[in-house]
Structure prediction request, 143 residues.
Amino acid sequence: MAAAEGVSLNHISRESSDITRLAKFYQQLFGFEEVESPKFGEFKVIWLRLPSSSLYLHLIERNPSNNLPEGPSSATSPVKDPSHLPRGHHLCFSLSNFQSFLHTLKEMGIETFEKSLPNGKIKQVFFFDPDGNGLEVASSEDS
Prediction:
């Protein structure tokens, strides 16, 4: 038996040197809405919530003295090809308008890698956000 009970995912944090740009990306593609966020003083944050769920995305201003690449798969790190994401670090969202969403990604000039689960029922597309964080979008089984 697990030590914790009633567990649910609360939020995912992403650090960025441009949280406004990153917020617009997630708002435009996935429909996240900005919610009230605390004022930390030494750094800025933008908190977003996905309206159809209780999932929050916390975008946190990057510490300028941090010398690490912008994201885990940013242009300055060795992995920038979305075909490496199926086995790598990524977030996944499911949606019902998969083909329309693919069209939007292509219109935005976002490089993608597409595949399906072995049973062929779930389609997947892998790509990066503007900071190089890996993303997957999966079709719902009935789409």
User: Anything to note?
Assistant: Residues 19-30 form the longest helix (12 residues). The mean pLDDT is 84. The longest strand covers residues 11-16.
